[in-house]
């Protein structure tokens, strides 16, 4: 700790002198002022080297809205200059009902300083007119990736998820329609390396910050990285925030990695200075063929998720209870589903897209021109999640869908797109969609404990430890993992024809 404090003091003093030298300012009073306010200056982002004053925006929503527009336009390679920024600021200000404001050059300068925008003219790169073929895209990626070990090659992709949707909904097509379903949609971003040995915590984006089912003490970060906005979409700000954390993790692990992403507008690095992560965009219009997550990883994740969801409905139907899943329950299902995606599945998907440099790659595969979403898995073990899901759906009965249709029902759901003004207004809005309050489950004491009662008791213990603030985080996670394992064991026992007592589980 003493060494850290000493380093911090030296760092602050050196930074202060550098600021003065860069501005050719003489005198030592400014250095003293900066050191006195070290807590404030340490909170300034590291990439804001041009910042001379710490100043909050007078109209924060306008500031947020303009920055959303700027990052979205930059992601679409648009050329943006100061006049365009001021014009858009006025338009957004009118929509926000701001009348007492002067959109001056001074305001624009402060906005750019606050947001770390260093350029006066923001020239976007022209979109490539050459739409490369799938094979050319593979070859280009192989050249890029040849300098990286498979352990250090990552892919991130988002998927929409209707976290409450059961398999017994009658659908005109394989897509869900209606207004209610949008309230039950979340975005889940999944990230893994090519060997499946590093799977990052799922990134979940919801429409609400703290729904009532969270209670006062539940922390969703126990299971997932959790953020929210009015559209439940990935945005540039959310992505950049995640990217900074990922870069920090890799830096602490002393790793140099490459992150493959599609060219969605939200996947915008902006002015971030990354030290351990290289962001690389997959060629346009080829992700259906060469993105590992699209090759079956997301599909396996959704099969595992919906197997849990069907099990939940079976239990509730048998007990004649409210069937709906709340967001708190869904977050654990997301975490468990991601944990259950096998290493072999991930390795197989990276192998199948043929982007890894390997002498064994066969360039003559007859499936090259078939989108990955239309291909069947090439390994028997990768079919297991779908087979298990189909069996669960048969237990529930009255299903109008196959397991394949159930897994892909939200495949085309948007997780982000080019933002219009209405989208921007909604994203900067402080309003949230309320969550329906959970039903309370009344426990009746019983002399003989059945498997269903045991399952309910485990659920109560899970709720207790999730809301506990006294237990250490690592112990808390360990307790929860064991409890969920016990609950899964009880589910297996429940399928046996003879009802058992709780004491039967401890007999040899």
UniProtKB/TrEMBL annotation:
Lineage, top-rank taxon, reads: Eukaryota
SMART domains in the record, alphabetically? CENPB
GO MF annotation terms:
DNA binding
Q: Which residues form the HTH CENPB-type domain?
A: 50-121
Q: Gene3D superfamilies attached here?
A: Homeodomain-like, Ribonuclease H-like superfamily/Ribonuclease H
Supply the alphabetized keyword list. Answer: DNA-binding
Q: What is this protein called?
A: Tigger transposable element-derived protein 6-like
The record's listing under Pfam families reads: DDE_1, HTH_Tnp_Tc5
Gene Ontology cellular-component terms for this entry are: nucleus
Q: Write down the SUPFAM superfamilies for this protein, in alphabetical order.
A: Homeodomain-like
**Key word DNA-binding present in the record?**
yes
């Amino acid at each position: 700790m003493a060494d850290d404090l000493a380093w911090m003091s030296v760092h602050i003093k050196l930074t202060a002198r550098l600021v003065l030298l860069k501005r050719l300012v003489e005198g030592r009073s400014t250095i003293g002022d900066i050191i006195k306010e070290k807590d404030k200056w340490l909170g300034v982002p590291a990439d804001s080297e041009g910042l001379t004053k710490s100043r909050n925006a007078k109209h924060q929503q306008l500031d947020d809205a303009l920055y959303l527009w700027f990052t979205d336009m930059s992601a679409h390679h648009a050329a943006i200059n100061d006049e365009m920024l001021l014009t858009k600021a006025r338009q957004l200000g009118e929509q926000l009902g701001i009348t007492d404001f002067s959109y001056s050059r001074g305001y624009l300068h402060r906005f750019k300083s606050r947001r770390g925008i260093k350029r006066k003219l923001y020239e976007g790169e022209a979109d490539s007119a050459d739409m490369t073929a799938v094979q050319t895209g593979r070859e280009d990626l192989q050249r890029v990736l040849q300098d990286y070990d498979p352990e250090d090659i990552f892919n991130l992709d988002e998927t929409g998820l209707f976290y409450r949707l059961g398999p017994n909904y009658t659908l005109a097509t394989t897509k869900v329609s209606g207004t209610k379903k949008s309230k039950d949609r979340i975005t889940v971003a999944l990230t893994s390396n090519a060997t499946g040995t590093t799977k990052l915590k799922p990134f979940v984006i919801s429409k609400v910050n703290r729904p009532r089912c969270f209670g006062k003490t539940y922390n969703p970060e126990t299971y997932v990285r959790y953020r929210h906005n009015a559209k439940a979409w990935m945005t540039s700000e959310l992505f950049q925030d995640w990217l900074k954390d990922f870069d920090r993790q890799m830096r602490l692990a002393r790793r140099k990695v490459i992150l493959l992403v599609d060219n969605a507008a939200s996947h915008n690095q902006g002015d971030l200075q990354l030290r351990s992560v290289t962001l690389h965009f997959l060629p346009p219009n080829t992700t259906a063929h060469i993105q590992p997550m699209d090759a079956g990883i997301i599909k396996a994740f959704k099969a595992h998720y919906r197997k849990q969801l069907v099990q939940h409905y079976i239990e509730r139907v048998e007990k004649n209870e409210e069937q709906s899943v709340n967001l708190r329950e869904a977050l654990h299902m997301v975490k468990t589903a991601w944990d259950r995606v096998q290493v072999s599945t991930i390795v197989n998907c990276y192998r199948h897209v043929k982007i890894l440099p390997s002498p064994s790659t066969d360039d003559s595969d007859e499936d090259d021109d078939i989108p990955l979403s239309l291909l069947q898995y090439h390994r028997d073990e990768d079919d297991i999640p779908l087979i298990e899901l189909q069996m669960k759906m048969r237990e529930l009965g009255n299903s109008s869908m196959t397991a394949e249709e159930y897994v892909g029902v939200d495949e085309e759901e948007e997780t982000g797109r080019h933002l219009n003004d209405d989208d921007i207004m909604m994203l900067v809005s402080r309003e949230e969609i309320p969550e329906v309050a959970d039903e309370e489950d009344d426990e009746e004491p019983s002399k003989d404990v059945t498997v269903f009662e045991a399952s309910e008791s485990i659920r109560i213990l899970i709720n207790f430890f999730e809301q506990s603030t006294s237990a250490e985080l690592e112990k808390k996670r360990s307790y929860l993992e064991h409890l969920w394992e016990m609950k899964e064991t009880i589910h297996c026992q429940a399928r046996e024809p003879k009802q058992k007592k709780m004491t039967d589980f401890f007999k040899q």
